[in-house]
């Protein structure tokens, strides 16, 4: 059993290139048992590539990734494409690809906030309930690390807030670490132990409080102070690591 606070996944100097293009450079990070880490960054900054690298779906071109022995990792995709005409209940969805104990399914649904909805057709779930069904499925293997890629895409503000509250509850109740991508800075700041601002490389990171005061963070998110600022990355700010912020295709307001 990994002791509390021990790194579950560690990246050292990880770089990734896709299609001959450098996507991530020199990423150093550790995700420790029980903590909530959030990655924020503009479109195309490499957030999904980082998640896919951590789960082992993308191989780094440089650097090292270490995973704790026996690590149980669950991945919650942004969304699931389901043919709405295909009849499938929540219970059947939870039992794919393999049959689970009914009590385990009930407990996972309960944790995800879908208690008692086993008989509900997936096509009858709201967007928020569908996200919770994906979360419930990810909780079936009692993960040490839960990875959520933009888990709130398509949800309205109350839906987003409620989903993150649920994630925090799962983190508190089960002690599983959470790594998530989010565009909602207000919620991120409240829910996270550690925030990483990504833009091909790590622009700044730390506790929500320290990141909110960092010049690199203010360069990324200052001014508008909301999600829109994510898309208006000014290139005049200084970076903690002194690296230039190049190679990403978002609006430049500098
Ligand atoms: N298989 C691939 N081959 C070539 N380039 C790729 C591949 N996958 C992703 N990319 C490029 O890598 C860059 C980062 O993509 P990624 O999806 O990781 O960014 P993101 O921060 O998750 O973006 P978004 O916020 O829009 O979801 C983009 O420029 C994308 O076009």
- In the sheet with the most strands, the strands line up as 5-6-7-3-8-9
**How many E strands?**
9
Please state the overall shape, judged from the principal axes of the Cα atoms: globular
- Count of helical stretches: 8
The residue fraction in helices comes out at 25-40%
Beta-strand residue fraction: 15-25%
Distance between the termini: 49 Å
Q: Main β-sheet, in a few words?
A: 6 strands, mixed
Low-confidence stretches: 223-254
Give the integer mean of the pLDDT values: 82
Helix vs. strand class: alpha/beta
CATH architecture of the largest domain: 3-Layer(aba) Sandwich
By CATH, the superfamily of the largest domain comes out as P-loop containing nucleotide triphosphate hydrolases
Distinct small molecules: adenosine-5'-triphosphate
Structural notes for this entry:
The structure is a single chain. The chain is an alpha/beta fold. The protein has two domains: about 1-70 and about 145-220, P-loop containing nucleotide triphosphate hydrolases (Rossmann fold), CATH 3.40.50; about 80-140, no CATH class. Helix content is about 30%, strand content about 25%. The chain has eight helices and nine strands. The protein has helices at about 45-55, 90-95, 100-110, 125-140, 155-175, 185-190, 210-215, 215-220, and strands at about 5-20, 20-30, 35-40, 60-65, 75, 145-150, 175-180, 195-200, 200-205. The strands form two sheets. The protein has a six-stranded mixed beta sheet, sandwiched between helices. A three-stranded antiparallel beta sheet has the order 2-1-4, with helices on one face. A hairpin with a 3-residue loop joins strand 8 and strand 9. Helix 3 (about 100-110) packs across helix 4 (about 125-140). The longest helix is centred in the middle third of the chain and has 18 residues, at about 155-175. Bound molecules: adenosine-5'-triphosphate. Adenosine-5'-triphosphate binds next to strand 2 and helix 1.
């Amino acid at each position: 059993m990994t002791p509390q606070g021990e790194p579950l996944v560690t990246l050292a100097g990880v770089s990734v290139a896709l299609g001959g293009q450098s996507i991530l450079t020199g990423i150093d990070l550790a995700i420790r048992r029980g903590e909530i880490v959030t990655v924020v960054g503009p479109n195309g900054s490499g957030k999904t590539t980082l998640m896919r690298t951590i789960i082992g779906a993308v191989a780094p071109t440089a650097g090292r990734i270490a995973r704790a022995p026996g690590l149980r990792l669950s991945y919650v995709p942004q969304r699931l494409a389901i043919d709405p005409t295909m009849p499938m209940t929540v219970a059947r969805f939870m039992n794919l690809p393999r049959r689970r104990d009914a009590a385990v399914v009930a407990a996972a649904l309960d944790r995800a906030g879908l208690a008692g909805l086993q008989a509900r057709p997936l096509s009858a779930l709201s967007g928020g309930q569908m996200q919770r069904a994906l979360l419930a499925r990810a909780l079936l293997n009692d993960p040490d690390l839960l990875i959520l890629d933009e888990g709130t895409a398509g949800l309205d503000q109350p839906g987003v807030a409620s989903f993150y509250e649920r994630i925090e509850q799962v983190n508190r109740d089960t002690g599983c670490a959470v790594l998530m991508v989010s565009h909602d800075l207000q919620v991120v700041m409240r829910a996270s132990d550690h925030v990483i601002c990504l833009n091909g490389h790590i622009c700044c990171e730390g506790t929500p409080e320290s990141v909110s005061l960092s010049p690199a963070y203010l360069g990324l998110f200052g001014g508008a102070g909301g999600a829109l600022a994510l898309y208006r990355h000014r290139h005049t700010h200084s970076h903690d690591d002194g690296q230039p912020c190049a190679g990403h295709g978002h609006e430049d307001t500098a």
